[in-house]
Write a structure and sequence with these properties.
2 helices; alpha+beta
Length: about 80
């Protein structure tokens, strides 16, 4: 619903998974959605990995607005 809000601020980076991770992604997607790209497709196109910096969430604005801040990741 529009009452349960989560807003994420951060950055996303395209990465090429190694074969083991590509296999895990295909398996997890198949289990959740019933289908998935082949592992080779994940390796060919890559995946976007999101790194949150700040997250805001609430159910009863403005009474319960909560903010989480995450430290910057090391490259």
């Amino acid at each position: 619903s529009s009452d349960d809000v989560v807003i994420l601020h951060g950055e996303a980076h395209l990465q090429i998974p190694d074969h083991a991770l590509a296999v895990q992604l295909a398996k997890a997607s198949t289990e959740k959605y019933g289908y998935a790209p082949r592992p080779e497709e994940y390796q060919r196109s890559g995946v976007h990995i999101f790194f949150p910096h700040t997250v805001f969430a609430w159910k009863q604005f403005p009474k319960d607005v909560t903010r989480w801040q995450f430290s910057q990741r090391d490259e």
